[in-house]
Amino acid sequence: MIVDFITWLFASERHKSAQINPSRKRSGMEINMEEKKERLNKYLASCGICSRREADRLIAEGRVTVDGQTASAGMQVCGREKIMVNHKEVSGKKEKAVLAYYKPIGVTCTEKDRHAERKVCDELKYPVRLTYAGRLDKDSEGLLIMTNDGELIDRMMRGANCHEKEYQVRVDKVVTDEFLKGMASGVYLEDLDMTTRKCKVRRTGRYSFSMVLTQGVNRQIRRMTESFGYRVRALKRTRVLNITLGELRPGEYRELQGEELRNLYDECGENGEA
Q: Stretch 232-244: mean pLDDT, rounded?
C-alpha cells in the first residue's frame, strides 16, 4: 500500500511538471518576442525616415499609424506591422548610408519649405533618401553629413555631446586681437538671451579667421560677429568631428567608409540614447 501510494505520488508530480513545462516554454517564447520589439520612434529612425526626436513629433501630431490605429508615444513594434507616416507606408529598415556633402551657397537645408528654390534633398542626387545631421544656412557653404541612420543623427545633434564643427570665416573689417579674444570667450546674444560657449578662434588673414564651435545655435557665427559690429562676407564649414571637406567641390559628395566611418561612430558614442 505504501509503495503504491509513493508510486502514485511520484507519477502525479511528473504529470504536474509536464503540464507546467509547456507554459514555461511559452512564456520564454513570449519574452523572446518582447525582446525583439523596439520603440516606434527608434524603429522609424533606423528606417531612415527621420531622427527619433522628429519621430516623437510626428507621433504626437497623429501622423503615424500602426496597423490602421493612430500611434501613441512609447509604442513598441517588431517591424511586421503596417506602419504609415503621413499616409505613406514605411518599407522597413534600409542599409545605412553616410555621406560627406559639399552644400553650395543658395541651397536651403529644408524638406518642408515649398518656397525654397533649391533644397538639399533635391540637389543631392543619391539613390537613397538621406537627411542632414546639422544645418547650414542658405548663405553658407561647406560640409554636411548626410545619412539615413536616424540614430547617428540623434547622437550628432545632441548639444550636450559638444561635438566640434570647424568653420572658415571672412568678415567686412580688419580682424583685431580684441575681436578674436571676445569671440573665443563666449558672446552674449541679446535676441536669444544666452551666452555662447567658449570656442577656439584663430586669425587666418587680415579679414578672415577660423573657428571651432561645440554647439549649434541658429546662425551662431553671424550673430556673434554682429555683436562686435562685424558682418560675415563668407562662411564655410570645413570639418564635423573627424570628417573634413577635403577635396570636395560645391555639389559633390563622397561616401564615408572604413576607418573614417568607424571613427565617426566612435566619436558620436556607439550606444547613445536620446
A: 97
